[in-house]
Each structure stands twice: as structure tokens, then as C-alpha cells.
Amino acid sequence: MYTDAGPWARFDDLTAGTAQLFGRPDQVAIARRPSEVADVLDEVERRTAQGRWAFGFVAYEAASGLDPTLTTHPPVDGLPLAWFGLTSAPRSVPVVGPGTRHEYTAGPWTAQWSAEEHREAVGAVRARIADGDTYQCNLTTRLTGPVSGDLTHWYRDLALGQRGAHNAYLDTGRFVLAGASPELFFETRGDRILMRPMKGTAPRGRTTAQDREAVTRLRTSAKERAENIMIVDLVRNDLARLAVPGSVEVSRLLHAERFETVHQLTSDVTARLRPGLGLTEMFRALFPCGSVTGAPKARTMELIRDVEAGPRGVYCGAVGVVGPPDATVRARFSVAIRTAVFDRDQGTASYGAGGGITWGSEPAAEYAELRAKARVLHRTTRAAAAAPGRPVSVR
Length: 395
Known about the structure:
It contains ten helices and 22 strands. The chain is of the alpha+beta class.
């Protein structure tokens, strides 16, 4: 399960203007079967408690290895369920910035579902809502396309296309993760934990006035508010499994955050952790984040397995860093959305997009939301236009 390897990673917070660079790790901890996931997280906890650092990911399909009641598709072929590099402290480096070189090609991107196929999936979810099996389901699909050339340039353009706080580039060998996630999964500082679930989306306007109107509609939409509040309730219940009794609080509710392509509603949920809890206990209680499952979590994940066409992989999992006990931030993980994973063996990348389906969902509006969330890929497909004969559409 533990092998010598030479990957590397960087994490760019384009909100704070800070970045961390991790070089070759001393060791890599890998889980390829559900039974190994907790062992990997335990190893990360042990090594960081001894002063080391760790960076890596936990795939969505790792869920059953943390809680046997959670159901998923079989994992992506060859992709680890959990992967962490164990290493020394990262270096602070400048954040990625605009560049004139785009030494890669990417696209065309092909959606797994057509609008009609998506409409049928939304209908299947609404039928299960009517049956009382779920009251919100995060329904997702994939876009796939060829990518070649300098993947760090591709990552830079993805990150600048979103300009969020949780951009990550992980080169693990066969698989390269290029993430532009705007969503915090959880962060621990001392005995405090913060989660910031994101639910409720509106596309950016073309003008400042249109942006103001979009935010007003988002904040006042009964559907979008209900989506967020449902997930806040789920997150509160998950956190209560870890928290000192009475310490779970919603410190900020329905805050509109602006990104390059969309506006999103986020809420802050905090708690004081019980003494002695480690990384494995946190993942058992919280993973996957409720914003990418829906509620109730276990029944809704069964529905996701039944309706979605295949595994999610790193998408909708978690990506992050764990530091030693004296680090200001002991652990910080993002929800792996706005995230593409490149497979060197296949020469292709997969990018996920999804949204919360409730009884009031309109399929056409939900499909438009998927397209808005995939708009970040336009930055990379424009770069690919320099390659003669390569289409640059996002469908």
C-alpha cells in the first residue's frame, strides 16, 4: 500500500493571494480497496502528528470504506480511492498568474448526457422525492475530452477561469488532478472545525447591474435558499458526531460569493471538536460532503448510484493538505468540484458538473446550471484553438 514515488503538488488560493508548493514526497500512501481507506488516513494522521506534512485526495467512491451504509459505483479503473504524499513542509510561492504561453491543447469537450437524457434523470430523481426516499439529490454528469501538452498551463488557465480559494494541481503519475474548486469541505484550527457548504447557483451577468440582479434573484429564490438550508441541516448533523455538545453553530447563512463564471450561496457551520479525534474520525463523520450528495445522505447516495451512469472518481471527493500539530491550519480539504482529472494512459480528461435536484427543479434550468458550471472549460478550449483543425466547442 505504501510505495516510493516522485509526484508533486501545488495549492493556489487566488482569494488570499497565497500558494504552497510540495516537492517529491518521501513516501506515498495509497488505498486501492475500500478496506484500505481508513488505513491510509490513519497513516496520514500518524505521520503528520510526528511533524510531517501530507497532500492528496480521497475519491468519492472511498465512501464505503469509511461507512459501509454508503453506496457508490465501482471505482474508476486504476484510480486510487485515496492517495497522499508524505513529505516535509511546503514552500510558499507566488500564485499562478496570467501567461502568454498556452503550450497545450484541450477539447473538444463532450457531455455524457444530452439535455433530454438529463431531463429523464431529473424526472427519476423527482419520482424518488415523491416516494419520500430523498428531499434533495445532487445529480451530476461528466464532460470528457483529449488534453495534451503542458498540463501546468492547463491548470493555470482553469484556476484563473474560476479565481477561487481552493485551486490544486496534483501530479500522481498516471493521473493528474487540475482543480479550481471554490468550495471548502472542512478546515481545522486547534480544536475548531469549519465547514462551508455551497448550494445555490446563478450565472454571472455581462455587466455590474446584471450581476447585482443575479445575486438578488439568487438570495430571494425559495428553491435556491431551500437547497442551501437543507444541506446546512445535514452538515450540522454530521458535525454533531464530532463536536462538543452544544458547540455546533451556523455562523453565516446564505452568503453570496462571486466567481468568474457564477455566483454561489455558501454558509459557514462551525463546531468545537471533542478531544482525541483524528483525521479518520472526521472523514467517517463528514465524507462525502452533503453538498455533493443530498439528503438524507445514505438513501440519496443509493439513488445517485442508480441514476448516474458511472463513478465520479476524484470529482465530488476531497482534495487537501494536512500539517503537523503546530501548523496554524492543521487540515484543510476542498470539495473536488470544478475539477478535471487527466489520465496519461488514455490521453483524456474528465470534468464533472452537477446540481441539487429538489421537487421544484425545472430540468431546463438545471441543465443550464450544468453548462454554467462547465463554463470554466472555455478558457482551456480557447487556448486549444491554436491547434489547427481542433474544434473548441463545449456541448
